[in-house]
Protein backbone atom coordinates (compact mmCIF):
# COMPACT_ATOMS: atom_id res chain seq x y z
CA UNK A 1 0.00 0.00 0.00
CA UNK A 2 1.32 3.48 -0.85
CA UNK A 3 1.39 6.29 1.72
CA UNK A 4 1.14 9.89 0.49
CA UNK A 5 1.24 13.22 2.35
CA UNK A 6 -1.00 15.82 0.72
CA UNK A 7 -1.13 19.55 1.44
CA UNK A 8 -4.15 21.48 0.20
CA UNK A 9 -2.37 24.54 -1.13
CA UNK A 10 -5.69 26.04 -2.24
CA UNK A 11 -9.21 24.58 -2.50
CA UNK A 12 -8.31 23.43 -6.01
CA UNK A 13 -4.59 22.65 -5.84
CA UNK A 14 -2.79 19.96 -3.87
CA UNK A 15 0.85 18.98 -3.43
CA UNK A 16 1.55 15.31 -2.62
CA UNK A 17 4.76 13.60 -1.58
CA UNK A 18 5.25 9.86 -1.37
CA UNK A 19 6.08 8.84 2.20
CA UNK A 20 8.33 6.01 3.36
CA UNK A 21 7.31 6.31 6.99
CA UNK A 22 5.99 8.69 9.63
CA UNK A 23 8.69 9.48 12.19
CA UNK A 24 6.91 11.75 14.66
CA UNK A 25 3.42 12.97 15.47
CA UNK A 26 2.36 15.08 18.43
CA UNK A 27 -0.25 17.68 19.23
CA UNK A 28 1.22 20.50 21.32
CA UNK A 29 -0.89 23.13 23.11
CA UNK A 30 -0.31 25.29 20.00
CA UNK A 31 -0.40 23.04 16.93
CA UNK A 32 -0.09 19.60 15.33
CA UNK A 33 3.54 18.65 14.55
CA UNK A 34 4.53 15.81 12.23
CA UNK A 35 7.77 14.56 10.71
CA UNK A 36 7.78 12.20 7.73
CA UNK A 37 10.49 10.42 5.77
CA UNK A 38 9.63 11.14 2.12
CA UNK A 39 10.94 9.40 -0.99
CA UNK A 40 11.97 12.60 -2.83
CA UNK A 41 12.48 15.41 -0.31
CA UNK A 42 14.21 13.64 2.59
CA UNK A 43 12.64 14.39 5.94
CA UNK A 44 9.60 16.67 6.00
CA UNK A 45 8.36 18.76 8.95
CA UNK A 46 4.72 19.82 8.83
CA UNK A 47 2.78 22.01 11.25
CA UNK A 48 -1.00 21.78 11.17
CA UNK A 49 -0.69 19.88 7.90
CA UNK A 50 1.38 22.58 6.13
CA UNK A 51 4.93 22.09 4.85
CA UNK A 52 7.49 23.94 7.01
CA UNK A 53 10.80 22.39 6.01
CA UNK A 54 12.08 19.57 3.85
CA UNK A 55 15.69 18.40 3.86
CA UNK A 56 15.90 18.77 0.09
CA UNK A 57 14.88 22.42 -0.31
CA UNK A 58 15.42 24.04 3.13
CA UNK A 59 18.71 25.53 1.87
CA UNK A 60 16.76 27.98 -0.29
CA UNK A 61 14.76 29.38 2.62
CA UNK A 62 17.59 29.48 5.15
CA UNK A 63 20.13 30.99 2.77
CA UNK A 64 17.74 33.72 1.75
CA UNK A 65 16.43 34.62 5.21
CA UNK A 66 19.99 34.98 6.54
CA UNK A 67 22.63 35.99 4.01
CA UNK A 68 20.88 38.96 2.35
CA UNK A 69 20.95 40.94 5.60
CA UNK A 70 24.41 39.71 6.61
CA UNK A 71 25.91 40.79 3.27
CA UNK A 72 24.22 44.19 3.55
CA UNK A 73 25.63 44.81 7.02
CA UNK A 74 28.65 42.65 7.93
CA UNK A 75 28.86 44.47 11.29
CA UNK A 76 25.78 42.66 12.64
CA UNK A 77 26.58 41.25 16.09
CA UNK A 78 23.31 40.77 17.99
CA UNK A 79 20.55 38.76 16.30
CA UNK A 80 17.00 37.81 17.27
CA UNK A 81 15.24 34.92 15.50
CA UNK A 82 11.49 34.72 16.04
CA UNK A 83 9.99 31.27 15.36
CA UNK A 84 12.47 29.14 13.45
CA UNK A 85 12.11 26.08 15.72
CA UNK A 86 13.63 23.76 13.12
CA UNK A 87 16.97 25.54 13.71
CA UNK A 88 17.89 26.14 10.05
CA UNK A 89 18.11 29.92 10.40
CA UNK A 90 20.27 29.63 13.53
CA UNK A 91 22.51 27.15 11.70
CA UNK A 92 23.22 29.70 8.95
CA UNK A 93 23.80 32.54 11.45
CA UNK A 94 26.36 30.50 13.41
CA UNK A 95 28.55 30.38 10.30
CA UNK A 96 29.49 34.04 10.94
CA UNK A 97 32.22 34.24 13.57
CA UNK A 98 31.47 37.99 13.84
CA UNK A 99 28.02 37.36 15.36
CA UNK A 100 28.25 37.49 19.15
CA UNK A 101 24.73 36.66 20.31
CA UNK A 102 21.76 34.82 18.81
CA UNK A 103 18.46 34.77 20.72
CA UNK A 104 15.80 32.46 19.33
CA UNK A 105 12.23 32.87 20.55
CA UNK A 106 10.04 29.94 19.60
CA UNK A 107 6.51 29.74 20.98
CA UNK A 108 6.39 25.93 20.83
CA UNK A 109 9.12 23.86 22.49
CA UNK A 110 7.67 20.71 20.90
CA UNK A 111 8.86 21.89 17.46
CA UNK A 112 12.42 22.09 18.79
CA UNK A 113 12.12 18.70 20.52
CA UNK A 114 10.87 17.09 17.29
CA UNK A 115 13.61 18.69 15.18
CA UNK A 116 16.44 17.88 17.59
CA UNK A 117 15.35 14.27 17.38
CA UNK A 118 14.51 13.96 13.68
CA UNK A 119 15.88 16.95 11.75
CA UNK A 120 19.52 17.25 12.76
CA UNK A 121 20.27 18.73 9.33
CA UNK A 122 18.64 21.96 10.51
CA UNK A 123 18.74 21.63 14.32
CA UNK A 124 22.49 20.89 14.44
CA UNK A 125 23.64 24.29 15.75
CA UNK A 126 21.05 25.01 18.42
CA UNK A 127 23.66 24.22 21.09
CA UNK A 128 26.19 26.78 19.83
CA UNK A 129 27.35 28.77 22.91
CA UNK A 130 26.17 32.05 21.34
CA UNK A 131 22.58 30.75 21.07
CA UNK A 132 19.96 31.30 23.80
CA UNK A 133 16.57 29.64 23.38
CA UNK A 134 13.40 31.22 24.80
CA UNK A 135 10.12 29.34 24.62
CA UNK A 136 7.61 32.16 24.55
CA UNK A 137 5.50 34.27 22.23
CA UNK A 138 7.65 36.44 19.94
CA UNK A 139 4.99 39.14 20.07
CA UNK A 140 5.51 39.57 23.83
CA UNK A 141 9.29 39.10 23.69
CA UNK A 142 9.83 42.27 21.62
CA UNK A 143 7.72 44.49 23.90
CA UNK A 144 9.50 47.35 25.72
CA UNK A 145 12.99 46.73 24.33
CA UNK A 146 15.16 49.45 22.84
CA UNK A 147 18.27 49.11 20.67
CA UNK A 148 19.10 45.53 21.66
CA UNK A 149 19.48 43.82 18.23
CA UNK A 150 21.16 44.61 14.92
CA UNK A 151 19.05 42.08 13.04
CA UNK A 152 15.65 40.47 13.58
CA UNK A 153 14.68 37.46 11.45
CA UNK A 154 11.00 36.54 11.58
CA UNK A 155 10.97 32.85 10.64
CA UNK A 156 7.30 32.28 11.29
CA UNK A 157 4.37 30.20 10.20
CA UNK A 158 1.54 31.81 8.20
CA UNK A 159 -0.68 34.45 9.88
CA UNK A 160 -3.08 31.89 11.30
CA UNK A 161 -2.86 30.32 14.77
CA UNK A 162 0.12 31.36 16.92
CA UNK A 163 1.81 33.13 13.97
CA UNK A 164 -1.01 35.68 13.59
CA UNK A 165 0.42 38.25 16.00
CA UNK A 166 3.70 38.33 14.06
CA UNK A 167 1.94 40.09 11.17
CA UNK A 168 0.56 43.06 13.16
CA UNK A 169 1.44 46.77 13.36
CA UNK A 170 2.13 46.38 17.05
CA UNK A 171 4.71 43.66 16.40
CA UNK A 172 6.48 45.52 13.58
CA UNK A 173 6.60 48.72 15.69
CA UNK A 174 8.14 46.83 18.61
CA UNK A 175 10.70 45.29 16.23
CA UNK A 176 11.59 48.78 15.00
CA UNK A 177 12.20 49.89 18.59
CA UNK A 178 14.27 46.79 19.40
CA UNK A 179 16.65 47.48 16.55
CA UNK A 180 19.85 49.53 16.55
CA UNK A 181 20.44 52.51 14.26
CA UNK A 182 21.58 50.28 11.37
CA UNK A 183 19.00 47.62 12.25
CA UNK A 184 17.42 45.27 9.71
CA UNK A 185 14.19 43.28 9.94
CA UNK A 186 13.61 40.32 7.62
CA UNK A 187 10.12 38.86 7.67
CA UNK A 188 8.40 35.88 6.09
CA UNK A 189 6.38 37.87 3.55
CA UNK A 190 4.14 35.17 2.03
CA UNK A 191 3.59 34.77 -1.72
CA UNK A 192 1.99 36.86 -4.46
CA UNK A 193 0.63 33.96 -6.50
CA UNK A 194 -2.47 32.51 -4.86
CA UNK A 195 -5.08 34.96 -3.64
CA UNK A 196 -5.06 34.12 0.08
CA UNK A 197 -1.24 34.33 0.28
CA UNK A 198 -1.20 37.54 -1.81
CA UNK A 199 -3.65 39.20 0.56
CA UNK A 200 -1.32 38.55 3.51
CA UNK A 201 1.73 39.60 1.49
CA UNK A 202 0.14 42.99 0.72
CA UNK A 203 -1.10 43.52 4.26
CA UNK A 204 2.30 42.79 5.79
CA UNK A 205 4.08 44.99 3.27
CA UNK A 206 1.74 47.96 3.82
CA UNK A 207 2.22 47.81 7.57
CA UNK A 208 6.01 47.57 7.39
CA UNK A 209 6.21 50.39 4.82
CA UNK A 210 4.45 52.69 7.28
CA UNK A 211 6.94 51.95 10.05
CA UNK A 212 10.36 51.46 8.38
CA UNK A 213 11.94 54.07 6.05
CA UNK A 214 13.27 51.30 3.79
CA UNK A 215 11.04 48.39 2.80
CA UNK A 216 12.02 46.11 -0.12
CA UNK A 217 10.50 42.64 -0.60
CA UNK A 218 12.70 40.07 -2.36
CA UNK A 219 11.96 36.72 -3.97
CA UNK A 220 13.07 33.12 -3.75
CA UNK A 221 11.96 29.91 -5.48
CA UNK A 222 11.16 26.97 -3.24
CA UNK A 223 9.51 23.87 -4.71
CA UNK A 224 7.44 22.72 -1.71
CA UNK A 225 5.72 26.01 -0.82
CA UNK A 226 2.47 26.91 -2.60
CA UNK A 227 3.27 28.05 -6.18
CA UNK A 228 7.01 27.76 -5.43
CA UNK A 229 7.37 31.53 -5.55
CA UNK A 230 7.78 33.29 -2.17
CA UNK A 231 8.98 36.56 -0.71
CA UNK A 232 10.89 37.81 2.27
CA UNK A 233 10.55 41.43 3.34
CA UNK A 234 13.72 43.48 3.90
CA UNK A 235 12.99 46.47 6.15
CA UNK A 236 15.53 48.76 7.74
CA UNK A 237 16.09 52.08 9.42
CA UNK A 238 18.93 53.22 7.15
CA UNK A 239 20.62 50.53 5.09
CA UNK A 240 19.59 49.80 1.51
CA UNK A 241 19.94 46.14 0.49
CA UNK A 242 21.44 47.02 -2.91
CA UNK A 243 23.35 50.28 -2.35
CA UNK A 244 24.87 49.06 0.90
CA UNK A 245 25.65 45.52 -0.27
CA UNK A 246 29.36 44.94 0.21
CA UNK A 247 29.75 42.03 -2.21
CA UNK A 248 33.55 41.86 -2.04
CA UNK A 249 33.53 41.76 1.73
CA UNK A 250 30.89 39.01 1.84
CA UNK A 251 32.71 36.97 -0.84
CA UNK A 252 35.97 37.31 1.07
CA UNK A 253 34.38 35.34 3.95
CA UNK A 254 34.51 32.25 1.74
CA UNK A 255 31.15 30.88 2.94
CA UNK A 256 29.93 28.12 0.65
CA UNK A 257 26.22 28.51 -0.05
CA UNK A 258 24.00 26.41 -2.28
CA UNK A 259 21.44 29.10 -3.21
CA UNK A 260 22.64 32.56 -2.16
CA UNK A 261 25.34 34.48 -3.98
CA UNK A 262 25.93 38.20 -4.29
CA UNK A 263 24.68 38.36 -7.93
CA UNK A 264 21.46 36.66 -6.90
CA UNK A 265 21.24 39.09 -3.95
CA UNK A 266 20.79 41.97 -6.38
CA UNK A 267 18.54 40.01 -8.76
CA UNK A 268 16.19 38.86 -5.98
CA UNK A 269 14.98 42.45 -5.52
CA UNK A 270 13.90 42.67 -9.19
CA UNK A 271 10.25 41.63 -8.94
CA UNK A 272 7.84 40.57 -11.70
CA UNK A 273 5.50 43.32 -12.95
CA UNK A 274 2.35 41.81 -11.44
CA UNK A 275 4.02 41.72 -8.02
CA UNK A 276 5.25 45.32 -8.31
CA UNK A 277 1.73 46.40 -9.24
CA UNK A 278 0.26 44.57 -6.25
CA UNK A 279 2.75 46.17 -3.87
CA UNK A 280 2.43 49.66 -5.40
CA UNK A 281 -1.38 49.54 -5.31
CA UNK A 282 -1.38 49.22 -1.52
N1 LIG B 1 10.21 27.80 7.17
C1 LIG B 1 8.92 27.90 7.67
C2 LIG B 1 7.83 28.37 6.78
O1 LIG B 1 7.74 29.56 6.45
O2 LIG B 1 7.02 27.52 6.41
C3 LIG B 1 8.84 28.41 9.05
C4 LIG B 1 9.20 27.27 9.92
S1 LIG B 1 9.37 27.51 11.61
C5 LIG B 1 9.21 25.87 12.11
C6 LIG B 1 7.99 28.43 12.12
C7 LIG B 1 7.88 28.46 13.63
O3 LIG B 1 7.29 29.67 14.06
C8 LIG B 1 7.04 27.33 14.21
O4 LIG B 1 7.87 26.42 14.86
C9 LIG B 1 6.08 28.03 15.17
O5 LIG B 1 5.89 27.34 16.39
C10 LIG B 1 6.76 29.37 15.35
N2 LIG B 1 5.86 30.46 15.78
C11 LIG B 1 4.59 30.70 15.33
N3 LIG B 1 4.07 31.75 15.98
C12 LIG B 1 5.02 32.19 16.86
C13 LIG B 1 5.06 33.24 17.82
N4 LIG B 1 4.01 34.05 18.01
N5 LIG B 1 6.21 33.41 18.53
C14 LIG B 1 7.27 32.59 18.34
N6 LIG B 1 7.27 31.57 17.47
C15 LIG B 1 6.16 31.37 16.72
TrEMBL record:
Keywords: Polyamine biosynthesis, Spermidine biosynthesis, Transferase. GO terms for biological process: spermidine biosynthetic process. The keyword Transferase applies. Residues 2-237 form the PABS domain. GO terms for molecular function: spermidine synthase activity. S-methyl-5'-thioadenosine binds at residues 31, 106, 137-138, 162. Pathway: Amine and polyamine biosynthesis; spermidine biosynthesis; spermidine from putrescine: step 1/1. It comes from the Bacteria. The keyword Transferase applies. CDD domains: AdoMet_MTases. GO terms for cellular component: cytosol. Pfam families: Spermine_synt_N, Spermine_synth. It catalyses: S-adenosyl 3-(methylsulfanyl)propylamine + putrescine = S-methyl-5'-thioadenosine + spermidine + H(+). The active site is at 155 (proton acceptor). Spermidine binds at residues 62, 86, 155-158. Its EC number is 2.5.1.16. Homodimer or homotetramer. HAMAP family: Spermidine_synth. Catalyzes the irreversible transfer of a propylamine group from the amino donor S-adenosylmethioninamine (decarboxy-AdoMet) to putrescine (1,4-diaminobutane) to yield spermidine. Belongs to the spermidine/spermine synthase family. This is Polyamine aminopropyltransferase. It comes from Clostridium grantii DSM 8605.
Amino acid sequence: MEFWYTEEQTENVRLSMKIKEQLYSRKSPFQQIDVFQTEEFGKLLTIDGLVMVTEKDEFVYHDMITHVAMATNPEIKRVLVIGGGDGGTVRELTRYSTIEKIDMVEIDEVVVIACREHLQQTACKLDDPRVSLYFEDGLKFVENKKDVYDLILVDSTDPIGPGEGLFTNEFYTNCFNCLSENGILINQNESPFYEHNAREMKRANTKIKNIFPICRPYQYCIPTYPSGFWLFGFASKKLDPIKDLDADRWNSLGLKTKYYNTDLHVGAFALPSYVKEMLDSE
